[in-house]
From TrEMBL:
Descriptive protein name: Cold-shock protein
Organism of derivation: Paenibacillus apiarius
Lineage, uppermost ranks: Bacteria, Bacillati, Bacillota, Bacilli, Bacillales
Amino acid sequence: MPTKILKCRNPECKAWVRDEFATAEQSCPLCNGPMLRSIKHLPAVQNKVKPQPRKRKSEF
Ligand SMILES: [Zn+2]
């Protein structure tokens, strides 16, 4: 299900917070950087975590 989130602008940083828990001027809890509004598709129930291939910096 799509969920509104704020994600860190730093592509190397995986931090994100749910929009409903974010403050008006939310900054990244990990690197203190600026955050962007986004949508995250959260699976209803999924416990497995696959290691994902690294994205190239240039893709961002
Ligand atoms: Zn960050």
